[in-house]
Amino acid sequence: MVFVAIAVLLFGILRLAHAMNGNSSTAHVAVISTNPTELPYYAARSLLRMFIALGLSVAFTFVYATAAARSRRARVILIPILDILQSVPILGFLAITVTFFLALFPGSVLGLECASIFAIFTSQAWNMTFSMYHSLITQPAELDEAARMFRLTKWERFWRLDLPSSMIGLVWNGMMSFGGGWFFLAASEAISVGKNKTYALPGIGSYVQAAVDKGDLREVGLASGVMVIMVIGVNVLFWRPLVAYAEKFRVETSESAEQPKSYVLNFLRQSHIPSYISKPLKPAGRGLDRITRPFGLAEYPLHTPEYKRRAGDVVFTVAMGAVILFGVYRGIVYFDHAAGFGQFTRCLGLGFLTFIRVVVLVVVATLIWVPLGVKIGMSPKLSRYAQPVVQVLASFPAILLFPFAIAVFLHLGISLNFGGIFLMALGAQWYILFNVIAGASAIPNDLRELMDQFRVPWQQKWRELILPGIFPYYVTGGITAAGGAWNASIVAEIATYGKHHLVASGLGAYIARASIKGDYPEILSGVIVMSFYVVVVNRLVWRRLYHLAETKYSL
Amino acid sequence: MPEVDTTATRQVIVAVDHVDKHFTTPDGQPLPVLEDINFELSEGEIVALLGKSGSGKSTLLRCIAGLLAPTSGTVSYRGTPLNGANPGVAMVFQSFALLPWLTVQANTEMGLEARGMPPAERHPLALKMIDLIGLDGFEQAYPKELSGGMRQRVGFARALVVEPDALLMDEPFSALDVLTAENLRTELLNLWKGKDFPTKAILIVTHNIEEAVLMADRIFVLTSNPGRLRAEIPDPLPRPRDRRSPEFEALVDQIYGIMTGRETDDAGQPAPALEPALASPTELPLPDVSVGGLAGLMEILANLGGHADLPDLAKILTFEVDDLLPIVDAAEMLGFAKVADADLHLSPEGDEWVHADIQRSKELFAEVARERAPLVRAIVRALETTKDGTLNERFFLDLLGRGFGEDEARAQLNTAINWGRYGEVFDYDADDGELMLEKAAYPVD
User: Which residues of B are less than 8 Å from A303 in CB distance?
Assistant: First the structure.
């Protein structure tokens, strides 16, 4: 039902874009220079995009998560939508959103900026929203009662209670999603839509694209270096301090054993900067508290007349149902005219090929990284060094490494049908490693000592302690890796390197080609089928493993 | 001000009128928690709501605070029925409910700030209250830097600074250690007597009988499952009250008697007791007690010569009613002991059980549990009707769910499994949730 609603939504955006598409052919194509002196400027532009997207994600999260948590009716619609949105391969509808934004700002580079920022936004927002929603609905009951008892206004409640109690989850999720966002930044700065229409924005991703087109691996390497510096810089200067600061908002009232530390935060705290900033903000905050008073208390009436509630439910259901039915009808008519439903069968077949690639990737990555991750995680010394490195590896947009890999494939004559798996793995595998390390280091020391003391053979130790211990973490890593791989298939199953074109058969290549052709019905059916695969596998496999992890293997 | 005024001219602050509260079980059945509650809280008095766990006393307090809607009946504040948080009360929580990211002072100012009071006005009020409640010097501390007792002081300061008409307290001292709790209680009573105290009435919910007798002018005893007002006991003892005075002990004994005694009908006559051997699992739920806990109490009782005064027993064990009474209920259900007034007497069966060796005590326990613990009996009978003597727990959970709600059904089954395993009556496989009859329940040797 909701799945259908999403399909309808995508379809709607597409139609809107079409309608406004009259004069988008005049869109600017920035000339991307591969001169290394331009790199700092490009990097800054990319970074700005990332932070604008982060800001939008945060704003979206505040509104969406609060609405979903506080309104019964909104929740019924919003949460399933979010669930599906999380499974939609973002890169797939990049072509659609670019067209849409170009139509919105005809003849201006702003449309491209918006499309790129939107792509990054979609890679960050859903996770963060889920995190905040989860924090809100698991808010300690007595804090909710205290807030109502002391009659906080809606505005005050959000800033005094709701946001602080969601802070830790939000910051951690923001950091992880931001890391994932680099990939979409790199992928969305240079994009081909329609016949011979290539759009590019000044940025590090388009720099790499231009260098690849020239076939200059040295410049690609240079850009990768800048990228690593940026990832590390943002982590040290922005996320670490924020994570350390968020500790203040831990709800358990006793101190946790290990506190995240940040030298940058310590430095800031000892300086006068915080008071310079907070001084002018305080009266502003009070002003806002006052202005928002008319919105009322964060309270709801204890008694609502039954008939009123029922009537509201009926109106709500009928309205939503009508919208969805109408959309389905229009969608069916559209597909029937434009592409025919045969496309879906074709997509399902191609999707299966990509599905097999994802399975191979997860299995191989598991066999390689689980033993290594356990080794690293069990040694506190190793994991202290390895953890940040793996985090950078997970954040680093693998797309920048593709040219090197493809050069090797070309040299060795490896088909992209197999090489694609490797390309997809370049970005996705780190999630498994990262989570396994975290899981292994969380295995209680006394249990390990017990095993050593009884001289338990290693097979038994793995079976009875290590595998159960890391299982919940592994499941989290696995689901993220698989999701990342589906997304990456859209850029990994098709590749251009200098004059060479490599193509694998798979759903990712299908969507990518449809984007290049500008064939919207094909893009749409491809994206819908890919979302379908992701949702079905999540429901049938990962969700069950999650359940098992929660009930049986939680320490 | 808090001179106890016995004339009927005192203003009623909160009136509770025919309040029922039902929760809904997962399969849609109403689960009564409170039934036909009527009472009033008036100016100048401290009222205690006393009950075991499951008596719905916290639910009642939340109805009065306007945080929960009663299923039927009304709660009104100074004559106006509530439709949202009660504007005239402030609450002190068992778990303190402080915002960990705010300082002591900011926490204290929370209610004033929400009223839109500017900082220049609310700072002095908060500082004065922090001073009064004994937290001077801790204004800028965060809750996690404070001990439990200090945190609860912040809870009091936050509630009192808004000068509520009535102060509601939900087991405010039960998360604190004994000495800290006693200290805070005494200080609160001293404040109550002082003329600066802004609040006109206090309602305290507790399961601690002595706490109720120490603090309250009137004590309401609630029954369990569902909660009804069983008795109203005036507490006219002069303040400050002495725990060791005979009057104090007599009142504690009286209330123990009421809480362990049987239901009374409308005429005040004891209702006919449920015979454990005949009652159904939902009529007579298993008390949430482990066999080890039961054995411990029986052993102590035997060492004390076979009978003991319940308040004394609680004192020896530094137990509170919530901990002690379920064990007493279990002992009575299984026929190991009997309660008369506030005294507990060991029965011959109980005596034999205490002194038997491990194998014999298991046999004895199995015998009485199969006969007198309704849920154990029901499980055994159900298992005996199947061919292989096994059934899935879902079967029992679904049946119990109709009478109890999901969590309580699970708790009941867990208790039954604990008892069944101890007596080797039946066993349970946690992996697949199968219950199976123990084949060799009575070894021949």
Answer: 69, 83
**Which residues in chain A touch residue B118, judged by CB atoms under 8 angstroms apart?**
286
Residues A282, A286, A292, A293: what is their CA dihedral angle, to the nearest 10 degrees? 160
Q: Are residues B251 and B317 in the same domain?
A: no
Q: Is residue B113 less than 8 Å (CB to CB) from chain A?
A: yes
Question: Does residue A253 belong to the interface with chain B, where contact is any CB pair within 8 Å?
Answer: yes
Structural domain boundaries, residue A406: 342-555
Mutation target among B20, B63, B99 for the A interface, most CBs of A within 10 A? B99
pLDDT band at B444 (very low <50, low <70, confident <90, very high): very low
Domain that residue B69 falls in = 12-260
Which of A103-107, B224-228, B289-293 tops mean pLDDT? B289-293
Q: Tokens 């011979």, residue? A: A196
- Helix or strand or coil: residue B81? strand
Element (H, E) at B169: strand B166-170
Sort out which chain B residues have CB atoms less than 8 A from A142's CB and list them.
93-97
Q: Say which of A140, A290, A302 has its CB closest to residue B83.
A: A302
**Average pLDDT of every residue of chain B:** 87
Confidence (pLDDT) at A18: 58
- What token pair was written down for A372? 């290594």
Tell me, yes or no, whether B19 lies in a domain. yes
H helix intervals, A339-379: 342-378
- Residue A67's CATH number: 1.10.3720.10
Nearest to A146 among B83, B97, B143 (CB): B97
Q: Is the pLDDT of residue A106 over 90?
A: no
The partner residue sitting opposite B91, judged by closest CB among A149, A152, A253, is A149
Sequential DSSP letters for B44-62: T-EEEEE--TTS-HHHHHH
Shortest Cα distance, chain B CAs vs residue A549, angstroms: 14
pLDDT > 70: percent of chain B: 93
Cβ-in-10-Å burial (0-12, 13-18, 19+) of B185 comes to: middle
- State the pLDDT at residue B369: 92
Is residue B136 domain-shared with residue B35, that is, in the same domain?
yes
User: What pLDDT score does A23 carry?
Assistant: 42
My answer on whether B190 and B321 are in the same domain is no
Inform me whether the C-beta atom of residue A249 falls under 8 Å from chain B C-beta atoms: yes
Structural domain total, chain B: 2
Residues A436, A373 contacting (CB under 8 angstroms): yes
pLDDT at A199 over 80: no
Contact B84 A297 (CB under 8 A): yes
**pLDDT per residue as tens digits for the range A452-510:** 888 888 888 888 889 988 998 899 889 889 988 998 898 889 887 777 888 889 999 99
Q: In angstroms, rounded to a whole number, what is the distance separating the alpha carbons of residues A528 and A539?
A: 16
What whole-number distance in Å separates Cα of residue A14 and Cα of residue B310?
A: 77
B122 Cα to chain A: minimum distance (Å): 13
CB distance A148–B67 less than 8 Å? yes
Q: How far is CA B138 from the centre of its chain?
A: 33
Distance of CA A96 to the CA centre of its chain: 19
Q: Pick from A492, A374, A367: which is nearest to A427 by CA?
A: A492
Does residue A416 have a pLDDT over 70? Answer: yes
Residue B268 has pLDDT above 50, yes or no: no
Least CB–CB distance from B84: residue in A156, A164, A299: A299
- Nearest chain A CA: its distance from B124 CA (Å): 18
Give B309→chain A minimum CA distance, Å: 37
Q: Distance from B96 to chain A by nearest Cα, in Å?
A: 8
Burial of A480 (0-12, 13-18, 19+ CB in 10 A): buried
CB contact B172 to A (< 8 Å)? no
Residue A411: which of A503, A505, A504, A500 has the closest Cα? A500
- What is the residue-wise DSSP string for B326-338? HHHHHHHHTTSEE
Residues B161, B52 within the same domain:
yes
